[in-house]
Structure formats: structure tokens, C-alpha cells
């Protein structure tokens, strides 16, 4: 357990934006109100109305890392991020049904994906989600060269960096705006509550009521 939380404090790791916003009602259901706004404050450790509960603001992809190492007791992360992380040291108790989207393969309008796959062409695939993409194409028996990107995946096929992308899609607006089409849905994605395995044992009395409140509120 990290020195930062050697006391009885609970640390929750969240990312700014949709995960923070969608977790607020769940925290409220557990009687916890975050008293600072990460969009207007530069602070990375936010207080709540409960002096024993604090929220740390980290990048979405870093949430599992903070929880795995016990620097945060629990956190909220997308299934996409958790699959890339691998889940080591994490207990994943509940699907919170927030930040819902899907992981998909997309190509430029005009690119004949089906034929390329059928003919056994080697595809260049740009993505932030290399593990998920690797597994998907391996299952299909499609040979791919994976190109790791950290954002703006939609650009890759437009400038010839790749034939296809693997990215999350919600409304499809980003694909449409960039002359791309979704050709395969890989899996549904939503965010999960993850808990550090040691914290779950040591701080169970404090964590359990919050986990249960999240569970009830996320089913509504
Ligand atoms: P980072 O800031 O580290 O690059 P990010 O930009 O992917 O991460 P967010 O955009 O806040 O972070 O996304 C957080 C999670 O929300 C993702 O891991 C995914 O599960 C989900 N998500 C991503 N895009 C959408 C979307 N358009 N609609 C709904 N959920 C989404
Ligand atoms: C995500 C994702 C896609 C977009 C898909 O981007 O990377 O680009 O959402 O959503 P849509 O199908 O509704 O258009 P996000 O909004 O998180 O921006 P970011 O990647 O810059 O954080």
C-alpha cells in the first residue's frame, strides 16, 4: 500500500471529461459530493464532502496503473483501456454502464474491406488499442501490421498511414466527418469500477458500501 494512503483515506482515480461527469451521480448515490471541478481547477487531488474520500484526476489510460499499484484504492476505466492494461492487480466488480460505445474497425469510404480480407491482403491498421486489435485480427486469421497511435486515429487512412483503424465509435459522427465507414463492430464498451485487490481486503468496510451504492445506481 502506498505511503500516500497509509491512513484510512480512500482515493478514487477518475479521468476528466465523460468518466468524471458520468461518475458524479454514482458518487452522489453513495453520499459523496466532489467539491472541486477538474475543468476549472488545476488541482489533481480533489476533495469531497467526506474528509476520508479524495478523487485524483489522471489520464483515462493511466487509471488502471494507479489502482494496480495501490496509489488509488479504486477507479473508473473503460473496458477498452482495461483490455489494453491486462487487469493485473485489479478486481473488477461492476459494469457501471457509463461511457457506452463500441470498438470497431473503420476504413475510408471506397476501400473494399471485405474483398481485401477475403483475398488475404496484409492490412495496415492504426490504433491506440493494439492488444484488442491484435486479438481481433488473429481470430479472423487476417494478417495485420499494427501501427500504434495515441489519438486522432481517423486521420491515418486519410493520409495513407494505414488501410484501417480500430477505434471507439459512439454516434459515428467522427467517422462520417472524416469520410470513413465502420466495417466491423468488435465489441461493446462501457466503463467499469476497478478496485485494488489489497485495498479490497484491507479497506473492505469502507469500500463495500460505496461499491454497493455504485452497483445500485448504475442499474437504474
Ligand atoms: P486519453 O485522455 O488518455 O487520451 P481518452 O481521450 O480516450 O483518453 P476519454 O475520451 O475521456 O479519454 O474516454 C474515456 C473512456 O470513455 C474511453 O476509455 C472509452 O471507454 C469511453 N469513450 C471514448 N469515446 C467515447 C464516446 N465517443 N462516447 C462514449 N464513450 C466513449
Ligand atoms: C472519441 C473517439 C472517437 C469519437 C467517437 O473521441 O476517439 O474519435 O469519440 O465518437 P462518435 O462516434 O460519437 O463521433 P473523444 O470524443 O473522446 O475525443 P478525444 O479522443 O480527443 O478525447
Automatic annotation (TrEMBL):
<keyword id="KW-0067">ATP-binding</keyword>
<keyword id="KW-0963">Cytoplasm</keyword>
<dbReference type="InterPro" id="IPR024893">
    <property type="entry name" value="ATP_PRibTrfase_HisG_short"/>
</dbReference>
<dbReference type="InterPro" id="IPR018198">
    <property type="entry name" value="ATP_PRibTrfase_CS"/>
</dbReference>
<comment type="pathway">
    <text>Amino-acid biosynthesis; L-histidine biosynthesis; L-histidine from 5-phospho-alpha-D-ribose 1-diphosphate: step 1/9.</text>
</comment>
<keyword id="KW-0368">Histidine biosynthesis</keyword>
<dbReference type="GO" id="GO:0003879">
    <property type="term" value="F:ATP phosphoribosyltransferase activity"/>
</dbReference>
<dbReference type="Pfam" id="PF01634">
    <property type="entry name" value="HisG"/>
</dbReference>
<comment type="similarity">
    <text>Belongs to the ATP phosphoribosyltransferase family. Short subfamily.</text>
</comment>
<keyword id="KW-0328">Glycosyltransferase</keyword>
<dbReference type="InterPro" id="IPR013820">
    <property type="entry name" value="ATP_PRibTrfase_cat"/>
</dbReference>
<dbReference type="InterPro" id="IPR001348">
    <property type="entry name" value="ATP_PRibTrfase_HisG"/>
</dbReference>
<feature type="domain" description="ATP phosphoribosyltransferase catalytic">
    <location>
        <begin position="59"/>
        <end position="215"/>
    </location>
</feature>
<keyword id="KW-0028">Amino-acid biosynthesis</keyword>
<dbReference type="GO" id="GO:0005737">
    <property type="term" value="C:cytoplasm"/>
</dbReference>
<comment type="subunit">
    <text>Heteromultimer composed of HisG and HisZ subunits.</text>
</comment>
<keyword id="KW-0808">Transferase</keyword>
<dbReference type="GO" id="GO:0000105">
    <property type="term" value="P:L-histidine biosynthetic process"/>
</dbReference>
<comment type="function">
    <text>Catalyzes the condensation of ATP and 5-phosphoribose 1-diphosphate to form N'-(5'-phosphoribosyl)-ATP (PR-ATP). Has a crucial role in the pathway because the rate of histidine biosynthesis seems to be controlled primarily by regulation of HisG enzymatic activity.</text>
</comment>
<keyword id="KW-0547">Nucleotide-binding</keyword>
<protein>
    <recommendedName>
        <fullName>ATP phosphoribosyltransferase</fullName>
        <ecNumber>2.4.2.17</ecNumber>
    </recommendedName>
</protein>
<dbReference type="GO" id="GO:0005524">
    <property type="term" value="F:ATP binding"/>
</dbReference>
Amino acid at each position: 500500500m502506498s505511503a500516500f494512503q497509509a491512513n484510512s483515506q480512500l482515493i478514487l482515480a477518475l479521468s476528466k471529461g465523460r468518466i468524471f461527469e458520468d461518475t458524479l451521480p454514482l458518487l452522489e448515490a453513495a453520499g459523496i459530493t466532489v467539491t472541486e471541478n477538474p475543468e476549472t481547477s488545476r488541482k489533481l487531488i480533489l476533495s469531497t464532502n467526506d474528509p476520508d474520500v479524495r478523487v485524483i484526476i489522471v489520464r483515462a489510460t493511466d487509471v488502471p496503473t494507479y489502482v494496480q499499484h495501490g496509489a488509488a484504492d479504486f477507479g473508473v476505466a473503460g473496458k477498452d483501456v482495461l483490455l489494453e492494461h491486462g487487469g493485473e492487480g485489479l478486481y473488477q466488480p461492476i459494469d457501471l454502464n457509463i461511457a457506452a460505445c463500441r470498438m470497431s474497425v473503420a476504413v475510408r469510404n471506397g476501400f473494399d474491406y471485405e474483398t481485401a480480407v477475403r483475398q488475404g491482403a496484409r492490412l495496415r491498421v492504426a490504433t491506440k488499442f493494439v492488444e484488442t486489435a491484435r486479438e481481433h485480427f488473429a481470430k479472423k486469421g487476417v494478417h495485420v501490421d499494427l501501427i500504434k497511435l495515441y489519438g486522432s486515429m481517423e486521420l491515418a487512412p486519410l493520409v495513407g498511414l494505414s488501410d484501417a483503424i480500430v477505434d471507439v465509435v459512439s454516434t459515428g459522427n467522427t467517422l462520417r466527418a472524416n469520410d470513413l465507414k465502420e466495417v466491423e463492430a468488435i465489441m461493446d464498451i462501457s466503463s467499469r469500477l476497478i478496485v485494488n485487490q489489497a485495498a479490497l481486503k484491507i479497506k473492505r468496510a469502507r469500500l463495500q458500501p460505496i461499491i454497493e451504492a455504485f452497483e445500485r445506481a448504475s442499474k437504474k
